């Protein structure tokens, strides 16, 4: 299982009532602001932006009522809760390799609107489902923890029904060769102290990886600018409201991702793939 210091911290803080555990009680991802200048730096604003990120990913995945959907790397179930509230007649599966996250997700999620929700403990690169099982597959801000993006895309393509869609959000270097430089090797280790295991950055483009898996890249959207208010909010939050463990675990990695992003070396991209009918 991947080493994820921030989820270890969150599991402890959920037990102890810590502020960071409460902030990331449901969603555990960056926020999305249509107008980043309108961000006001409050907790309520950031939570709303995390929910809006879910909205953007559901649009990218063309999620609609009555679908059979797989949310890979589902965390505490925040994205599934968004789907559950906004759609009906859904058959939803949340998958994660960490049983602690699944237990927390199941405990705080109740199916509504005629939806059914199930939880599966498994590896995203070895999905325990039959071919052509799902109308939609989502991977919200988690694929960088997987051992291989290429293997995951191949597995997602396998379990998607013909005509189905996959939506992925990921941190992607602006220039592929940057991931091979000494700068990235050094920075990567600092980010890992906060956010843990980071899979190998592929040299091939997502379009090529998708094509090798039998998927067509339909949309490729860089929303780096829309995520920028995440960084000052989180760094201030950890410093002023976080526990000593939260400060020690989270500040360094978040600052390095902020630097890479503001320097234009790291993008936040949302991809939509289509499996041809």
From TrEMBL:
Protein name: Methyltransferase domain-containing protein
CDD domains cross-referenced by the UniProt entry: AdoMet_MTases (cd02440)
InterPro entries in the cross-refs: Erg6_SMT_methyltransf, Methyltransf_11, SAM-dependent_MTases_sf
GO BP annotation list: methylation
Domain of life: Bacteria
Signal peptide: none
Transmembrane residue ranges: none
Domain Methyltransferase type residues, every copy: 70-168
SUPFAM superfamilies: S-adenosyl-L-methionine-dependent methyltransferases
Keyword Methyltransferase: yes
Molecular function per GO: methyltransferase activity
Lineage of origin: Bacteria, Bacillati, Actinomycetota, Actinomycetes, Mycobacteriales
Keywords on record: Methyltransferase, Transferase
């Amino acid at each position: 299982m991947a080493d994820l210091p921030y989820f270890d911290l969150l599991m402890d803080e959920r037990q102890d009532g810590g502020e960071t555990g409460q902030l990331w009680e449901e969603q555990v991802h960056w926020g999305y602001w249509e107008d980043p200048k309108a961000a006001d730096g409050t907790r309520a604003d950031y939570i709303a932006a995390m929910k809006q990120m879910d909205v953007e990913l559901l649009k990218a995945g063309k999620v609609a009522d009555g679908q059979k959907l797989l949310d890979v790397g589902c965390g505490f179930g925040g994205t599934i809760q968004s789907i559950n509230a906004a759609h009906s007649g859904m058959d939803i599966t949340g998958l994660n390799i960490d049983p602690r996250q699944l237990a927390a997700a199941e405990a705080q999620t109740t199916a509504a609107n005629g939806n059914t929700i199930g939880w599966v403990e498994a590896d995203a690169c070895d999905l325990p489902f039959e071919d052509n099982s799902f109308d939609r597959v989502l991977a919200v801000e988690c694929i960088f923890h997987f051992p291989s993006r290429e293997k995951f895309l191949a597995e997602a393509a396998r379990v998607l029904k013909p005509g189905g869609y996959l939506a992925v959000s990921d941190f992607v270097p602006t220039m592929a060769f940057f991931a091979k430089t000494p700068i990235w090797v050094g920075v990567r280790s600092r980010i890992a102290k906060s956010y843990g295991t980071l899979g190998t950055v592929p040299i091939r483009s997502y379009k090529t990886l998708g094509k090798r898996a039998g998927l067509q890249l339909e949309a490729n959207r860089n929303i780096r600018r829309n995520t920028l208010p995440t960084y000052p909010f989180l760094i201030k939050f950890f410093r002023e409201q976080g526990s000593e463990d939260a400060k020690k675990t989270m500040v360094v990695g978040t600052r390095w991702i902020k630097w890479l992003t503001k320097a234009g070396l790291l993008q936040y991209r949302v991809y939509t793939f289509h499996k041809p009918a």
